[in-house]
Amino acid sequence: MALYSEKVMDHFRNPRNVGVIEDADGVGEVGNAKCGDIMKMYLKIEDEIIKDVKFETFGCGSAIASSSMATEMIKGQPVSEAMKLTNKAVAEALDGLPDYKMHCSVLAEEAIKNALEDYESRKNNK
Amino acid sequence: MIYADNAATTKMSDAAIDTLTRCMKETFGNPSSLYSIGQTAKEVLEKAREDVAGVIGAQPREIIFTSGGSEADNQALLTAAALGKKNGKKHIVSSAFEHHAVLHTLERLKKEGFEVTLVDVHENGIVRPEEVEKAIREDTCLVTIMYANNEIGTIQPIREIGAICRQKKVLFHTDAVQAIGHIPVNVEEDNIDMLSSSARKFHGPKGVGFLYVKKGIKAENLITGGAQERGKRAGTENVPGIAAMATALKEAASKLDENTVKLSAARDRLIAGLKTIPHSALNGDEHSRLPGNVNFCFEGIEGESLLLLLDDKGIEASSGSACTSGSLDPSHVLLAIGRVHDVAHGSLRLSIGETITDEECDYIIKSVGEVVEYLRGFSPVWRDLVSGKKQFIL
Ligand SMILES: Cc1ncc(COP(=O)(O)O)c(C=O)c1O
Ligand SMILES: [Zn+2]
User: Could you tell me if residue A84 is inside a domain?
Assistant: First the structure.
């Protein structure tokens, strides 16, 4: 039996939306070197719709796959919908993660929320 | 496929498999029985004991067969603790990068009122004998220092530490699980009182090992019951496994010089090649290390994703990253030699086998370089390092 599902390995081997958005409307970074996974999310938002999203991840297979899947799930979604993304939904979309790897998917959820909060605060400061 | 995780476990040798199957078919008797098939099994068992003892310079009666290295470590520590308790000595000296079979047993002993001093393993991953000497007190009942570290492969000055213990009249145990069959070990010359070993690290079967206990030391039972192993380890002996271990060990000992030459050349080729990857560093001393061990940290990446991508390229290795162990902390060994978390997560251990070729080494070097570069390409940590937001450590 493999450690990860086919879906996880697919997103790990061919991560979607990898990279940086230079003129992002919201940027979020979570995790720390201590636990071993760090994620950075960049959002491009127009009319409250997530037009583009990119990520960078330092982390394990599960962290990279969760970042990739999470970006796919929110791309093209309204901000209000993206705010509702849960790590459970990310893990389910990946056909599950090993129990001890669930914290890596929590980071994906947090990175997106973090980026959305950054977007909101920039909007309010305009 | 290049299997480079021999420190985790090895493939059984053909000779060991032959012994194992022959023993299962032909000498299935219980060595404690008096009829012929039982006595034949007994002969096989005692021959294995002689062979194992012969390789490490011990007497056959000083060998207790166990279920592996962990059991041997447990029995050694609990033996010293029982003797210590009797003499009012409840202090133990060890090191921070021992295997968990030792460290967790020490934790258990702490709960029983033992005090433990862990000596420094320094940046090069080598314990200093004079620091062991300083750590020994009036009430020290045991010094336990591993022969060679399982992650970074550093070989410890066992003979010197043993000599100090002899002089101070303190019991000395060494976890030699990674050393036996790979480097010369002699319990007499090395001044060792107790030694643990595991068959699966030298092409023997899993679930078999032995503990050497010097004559005159009363071993404490972990498993009580029948009178097997001179009453020191109850339970009908795993005769086929033990016989196969003896075969594997004799074979490893006879090929030791040849393998050392071959493996250390391959190891040095790998080290030289991997060093050319920017912001990488070898973990542990370059010279006093097991012939087959290579362990590197690569800054800006995480070990598990490195392993998964190497696996895709047909290379099987291991890492001390947190995410490969299921805990949040990276390897206690890497932390003990002073690697900070940021760097310790990006480690790679290659423990190569005797069949490795130069071409395979070069393929490993090339593949690791490619994967490290790829992962750095979308690592926010690497970006911060390159942009100067964070300082490089390596
Ligand atoms: C240094 C060391 N000690 C002890 C052990 C445990 O041996 P076993 O799995 O045979 O119980 C190992 C194996 O990983 C080891 O490397
Ligand atoms: Zn992770």
Answer: yes
Residue A86: alpha-carbon gap to chain centroid = 10
Find the CATH number of the domain harbouring A25.
3.90.1010.10
* Ligand 2 centroid – CA A105 distance (Å): 8
Asked if A44 contacts A52 with a C-beta cutoff of 8 angstroms, the reply is yes
- A-facing residues of B in 268-307 (CB < 8 A) are 300-305
Domain that holds residue B201: 14-254
- Residue numbers in A near B393 (CB within 8 A): none
In one-letter notation, the amino acid at residue B55 is V
The pair phi, psi for residue B351, each rounded to 5°, is -115, 100
Q: ipTM score of the complex? A: 0.96
Identify whether residues B232 and B267 lie together within a single domain.
no
> Of B210, B236, B254, at which residue does a domain stop?
B254
Encoded tokens for B202? 């030298």
Q: What is the pLDDT of residues B64-85, one digit of tens each?
A: 999 999 999 999 999 999 999 9
Range of the domain at A32: 6-121
Residues of chain B with pLDDT under 50: none
Pick among B301, B323, B383, B390 to test the A interface (most A CBs inside 10 A): B323
